[in-house]
Amino acid sequence: MKILITGGAGFIGSNFLLDSVQARKNDHFVNADCLTYAANLQNLSSLEGSSNYEFSRTDITNGQAVFDLFEKVEPDVVFHFAAESHVDRSITGPGAFIQANVIGTFNLLEAARRQKNKDVLFHHVSTDEVYGSLGPQGLFTEKTPYDPSSPYSASKASSDHLVRAYHRTYGLPVRITNCSNNYGPYQFPEKLIPLMIRNALQKKPLPIYGNGKNIRDWLYVGDHVSAIWAVQDRGKVGETYNIGGNNESSNIDLVQTLCRLLAEITNKPEHEYLDLITYVKDRPGHDQRYAIDATKIKEECAWTPSETIETGLRKTVEWYVQNQEWVESITSGEYQEWIEKNYGERDKS
């Protein structure tokens, strides 16, 4: 099977490829990524030389580049991870999110439906943020009406609708998964968990929006990868599956847990980290609570998460403590210098 991955050098894509390429020797993986600030091709250095893996520097907002890629690869399946995903950045610069998440998805769908000789199964990876905010009770199901609050979630909602429209209008085989907040190794430190870990290790403030009571369901990235394969292997075409970690936590409780784990792992007093917690002005349109009902994927695809919030966070903290050089290389500009040296003269379309 020929598998095209978009955004495979990003956080979730990297973990997906690292878990999949060696385990599925009979499948051929092509990683298409334009290598933005949040992507890191060095994450995938262990795959270099694998006979069933190759990389293509492709910008999905360039329609012709996407068509050329499909013509070359002729994929059987597309796993569409590529996206601008940071809510705060979408508030200050929404244009990039429309380009990547809406136009980029449109270009991929067009290329998929126009591919000759065979149908392409299009698996669209999306977010629970498209559903908006929950009150103290209730869960998001696959039938929850869309009510996005930020430019990011609105762009992802738009791409979800496009995928469904291409299935209904053109008969393109599709599946959509909407996941809760991911965390784990290789996540760019603008996101909450790696940001808190990095700041704590550097004795910098740990900024918490508002009163810290906003609640999220947390999904370990390894569980997300296994869920995607469960949907691929056992899910129905045309269906949507919600993927949740069954791990609800308020932001303040999560950060306090991180401080406790850091204290254990670094053998330092817990108060040294807890004292860094700082409350800051809440961001606009901050959803109060997300929580996912994952009954459908459990019943139809025989999937449940393996990690609890405690086990997943411990693995994550240990990874970041042991890989501080990785964090510094991507935040200092060293990684971007490496990209320009190795890819600067190549076609960036």
Question: How would you describe this structure to a colleague?
Answer:
The chain has 349 residues and is an alpha/beta fold. Helices cover 43% and strands 16% of the residues. Helix 1 links the parallel strand 1 and strand 2. Helix 4 packs parallel to helix 5, helix 6 crosses helix 11 and helix 8 crosses helix 11. The two termini are 26 Å apart.
Compact overview of the structure:
The chain is of the alpha/beta class. The protein contains 13 helices and twelve strands.
* Helix content class: 40-55%
Envelope shape: globular
Record the strand order, biggest sheet: 3-2-1-4-5-6-10
CATH architecture field: 3-Layer(aba) Sandwich
* Low-confidence runs of at least 5 consecutive residues: 345-349
Percent of sequence in beta strands:
15-25%
Give Rg in angstroms: 20 Å
Structural class: alpha/beta
State the CATH class: Alpha Beta
Could you state the CATH homologous superfamily?
A: NAD(P)-binding Rossmann-like Domain
Q: Give the H and E element order.
A: EHEEHEHHEHEEHEEHEEHHEHHHH
| Count of all domains | 1
What is the overall pLDDT average?
Answer: 93
Summarize the biggest pleated sheet: 7 strands, parallel
Record field, number of beta strands: 12
Number of helices: 13
